[in-house]
What we know:
Keywords: Coiled coil. With 203 residues, the chain is mainly α. The chain has helices at residues 2-42, 95-128, 134-162, 171-191, and strands at residues 130-131, 199-200. The chain folds into 2 domains: 1-42; 93-200, no CATH class. The chain has a two-stranded antiparallel sheet.
Amino acid sequence: MNQQLNTYLQQFHAFVEAQEKRIRSLEAAVKKLQEETEVLKNRPPMQVDRIEYKFDQLKVESLEGTLNIGLNPSELQNIEDFAVDNKNIKAPISPKNQMKRTMEIEDAIYQYLERELPDITASVQKKLNVSVDDSYIAFIKEDIKKQLPNRIDFYIKQQQASNRSGQENDNAEIIELIKKEIYNGVHAFISHLPENMKGMNNE
């Protein structure tokens, strides 16, 4: 028993000595850091009055690289290559013109929804031999309106990409494409309604 106690005390003593040694080492490191901090604090601040560049002494052997103005290099991945053949160069549409086109298309589709949506939904219901509550028609209309800006933007960009030959952008083409989407969307919505939310047409 005494032998075990002596062994334990020796191990404990060695551990305490190692800890004291480590503490002394850390205290020395802290003291050194404090001294270095004091030296840095007392160092006079560096002041730059004026920097002069003498471009006439600058010699350029070769000029390489890419100059990006107003673009982040990560955004360049989304920019397609432009091929210029000195014949038909079509500049990208300005934000003002894009907004004007978007509003014109949106206005045409809003009018179309007011005039034609009831007939479209009636036609789809007849084709599927079901009837749905009018509240669904209102829901469909609001859902279409929410999605319109994104769909218009998609088709404008698609049209710009394919119209590099210089031909005029065509709002009527986009309006027709969106009308087809509306019909297909209404058909898909009504045909996928749960059976308990559909009524059968009695004709």
